[in-house]
Amino acid sequence: MNLTSTPALQGKIAVVTGAGSGMGLATVRAFLREGATVYALDISQDNLDRELGSEDDVTLIALDIADSAAVNDAFTRVRDDHGRLDALVNAAGVSTPNRRATEWVDDINHRMTDAMKKGEEFAPEFLTDIPDEDFDRVMKINLYGAFYAIRAATPLLKAAGGGAVTNFASVAGFLALPMPSYYPASKAAVVGMTRALAGELAPFHIRVNALAPAGINTGMLTQSGDDHVQALLALQPLKRLAEPEEVAETLVFLSSAAGAHYTGQVLSPSGGAHLA
């Protein structure tokens, strides 16, 4: 009896954005393990080279996902190499637009958690201190970047006779959490775009879904320190962070034949923080 099974993505062509770290990197590695040929897109050439430079069946492309021309060029390369695409994962994203904003948010979060420990009230204020360029930059990366990638990918997905797109949203788009509004606004918009495109692309056998995670053990989350992590975990029935590798298995599922009847869905690996 032959007990070996065909890898879930054997012979598939995939594009993963945000591929140099975190969820994007875990997804690339899972896709490679499952037999896919992967185009790994990330803003950092150094991260791509360090993490994936020794891998086979992966093409590394450094670009700013907010640059629509650069995104189009990347998918032109996929077209020239293969003439089709089977799966797209939009994992590129930021919670803050730059180091200055990160330090500002971290300071407020630390003061908020300190007040909570002391049983004191603390009302964080973000709104009036967000400059236009910060709001624009986060929206360009988290929302526009996903849109640019899907728009460029769609002709190649159609050429393949169908395929799968998975976008990264966040529980922040569903919950009333105090934070700079550009992040939840961008992630809620990703959900709306996902559902609209699921309807539009279904006749072409292209499935479009989203993940809305809470705490995942990546640098984007843990950079703010353990107090911030613990405050997030307090919202979850499961009191631990998810590992990128375990969430990547959901992306394999959604991108493979096993997930063939899922579209327009928002799956939430959030430890129970968000219940649809």
UniProtKB/TrEMBL annotation:
Transmembrane segments: none annotated. The keyword Oxidoreductase applies. It holds the Pfam family adh_short. Keywords: Oxidoreductase. GO terms for molecular function: oxidoreductase activity. InterPro entries: NAD(P)-bd_dom_sf (IPR036291), SDR_fam (IPR002347). Belongs to the short-chain dehydrogenases/reductases (SDR) family. The keyword Glycoprotein does not apply. It comes from Corynebacterium maris DSM 45190. This is Short chain dehydrogenase/reductase oxidoreductase.
